[in-house]
Amino acid sequence: MKTYPGATGARLPRWLLPDHWPMQGDQPQLATLHFHSDGLQLAPDEGPHADYLPLNGALVLPALIEPHAHLDKTFTIQRSPAQQPGLLAAIAAMHQDRMHWSREDLEKRTQQALLWAVESGVSLLRTHVDWFTTEAPLAWQVIGEMQHPLCCIERVALAPLSFFANPDDAQHIATQVAASGPGALLGGFIHSSNWDAQALLNLLQAAEQHQLDLDLHIDEELNTEAQGMRWLANTLQHHPFSGQITCSHSCALSQQEDALEILDLLAQQRVTLIALPLTNLLLQDAVPGRTPRQRGLTLVKEAQTRGIPLLLGADNVQDAFCPLGSYDPLDTLFSGVLSLQLGAAFDEASQLICRADAFYRNDMVIFPHADTASWPLRQRQRYRLKQGVRYGEATNDA
Ligand SMILES: [Zn+2]
After folding, report:
1. How far does residue 104's CA lie from ligand 1's centre (Å)?
2. What sign does the CA torsion over 388, 394, 395, 396 have?
3. 312 forms bridges with which residues in the sheet?
4. What is the pLDDT of residues 7-20, one digit of tens each?
5. Whole-angstrom distance, CA of residue 98 vs CA of residue 168
6. 234 Cα–ligand 1 center, Å
7. Cis peptide before 376 (omega within 30 of 0)
8. What is the pLDDT of residues 336-386, one digit of tens each?
9. Is the pLDDT of residue 397 over 80?
10. Residues paired with residue 89 on neighbouring β-strands, in sequence order
11. C-alpha 55 to ligand 1 mean position (Å)
12. Which CATH superfamily does the domain covering 64-352 fall into?
């Protein structure tokens, strides 16, 4: 396999370029990338370089991230569609389906999902895994055994908040997650239908004690009375958490009068927000026979203004929660650009589906025939360039 020591003619997004990068007209100058063993070095294009991969203005992004998926449920829509619109009906359909979740069934579905994600250029996939009792489910183990040389997989234990009401149960769950090794996180489903402040405190304390990061399904609803984010923001003020906290969904912020104060507090606490535009558009404000009036999305722009780290995730793919989906972050981004009215897709919004650190570790995705005006709708063909080696779809004229 050929290893390139660098690449010329890379069109990088503006958000990734250093300040004062030279412009050519209204476009940033193309870049030459030098792949060193200790990282990537970047310079304005210096003309042809022997042995370097010529990219000729191809669009280049850091390897992509899928920060929020549900591999245990994926590809079950055919046998278990939801009987009604909305989140709670989808949860009911999932409970119907899980009698089919044998090792063979789980392996088949999760491997397909992983393959689709890797084909899309995903280098880090975080999946939530539902727990149905305080014992780790089979899917936790099956997904824990999955490996791919081009993709790291993280698992989040997704348990309803009620499982943490008893501190001993909270400890028991956290102990199993901690014993699962790196890439295992503690999570929870926190909703006004199961709100319990003491249980959330137990969850936080168990995570802290076992040095686990958190990723919470929190306030995935448009109920102004949702308490999760408000409680978390206030509690972290007095009980700082040493790990990383990620809050997924947080749709209720779009309805709450004190939402900006909540965000101000969370901005001080290194909390990351994940918006899930596809499923939030589909599952929020969902009433049979009535056109939805609300978008159901969290306050992405207000979070950005406050410097809160933010990502977009796919959430459910081809299950009772969402019948569509592709594990392609470009589809999520397209949905987000429109529904959240984000800025330029490539030059600004693309930072919501990847992170600069992958790029500086010489791991990127190349869109060889793309231009910034058409991306991500047309010219979606791509390949991965990792440590100077090309993977995936080969093209003659990179
Ligand atoms: Zn989810």
Report:
1. 23
2. positive
3. 275
4. 999 999 999 999 99
5. 26
6. 24
7. yes
8. 999 999 999 999 999 999 999 999 999 999 999 899 999 999 889 999 999
9. no
10. none
11. 37
12. Metal-dependent hydrolases (3.20.20.140)
